[in-house]
Request: fold
Amino acid sequence: MTSTTRSPLSPAAEQTPAPTRSSTPLSLDHVTLEYPDGEGTIKAMDDVSLRVSAGQMVALVGPSGSGKSSLLAVAATLVRPTSGTVIIDGQNATGLKDRELTTLRRDKVGIIFQQPNLLASLTALEQLVISDHLRGKSLKTARSKAAELLDVVGLASSANKRPHQLSGGQRQRVNIARALMGDPTVLLVDEPTAALDHERSTAIVRLLRRVTDEFQVATVMVTHDTEFVPLTDAVATMRDGRLSAPVPTHS
Ligand code: ADP
Ligand code: MG
Reply:
């Protein structure tokens, strides 16, 4: 963790005090997720508990089919668990209606998948602006924030490029910047480097480490590459839907 904590980037946020943020933005308690499987069910998550604090980065590892993506989907409130509790930035998602969940997700959760899902006709800047416009922010505010975030991810000079003019690594950077547009408290990242070569993969994981520190988000990153584990604070292993207690990666 570093001491350089950034405040939210929007100019409006500089005038009004930032809303209180939970010191433990992500909390899963005894979460079970069952999918129908033939006549029975399959437990994609089996009594999973996990707490991630602000500025903490947890690596999630485990074999294919062990439930890693399921955990991220439940933490993102994209999938309701069969039982157990998901708390995002102090708010219990269990009792919320779908519309309320959508708002919670939009305002608190940044999601980064393996393949950046960028719109082909939009520039890097526009990809970010559009996401914030959906949050009801003014275009002017969204534009200046988008420009700052592209700078954070090292793409200031590529703001006007469209996806086909960017490399895979640059597209993933746009994806990361976009996920930060809503000042999320939780960042959920699924195999962000699976489509990238080694050098670009390392750069992306380093960037995720840096934004976790600077923006004090609670980050969970699924990775199959144990080489990146030392860049995180703790590693938790998923096996057949069960999650091991996170093991600190440094003292
Ligand atoms: P991982 O990301 O570790 O590869 P997943 O979370 O994708 O694992 O899958 C965990 C288990 O849940 C697997 O057995 C998978 O087949 C099953 N599963 C995942 N999503 C669904 C779904 N939408 N419907 C039914 N089964 C699913
Ligand atoms: Mg997966």
In short: Residues 31 and 84 are 4 Å apart (CA to CA).
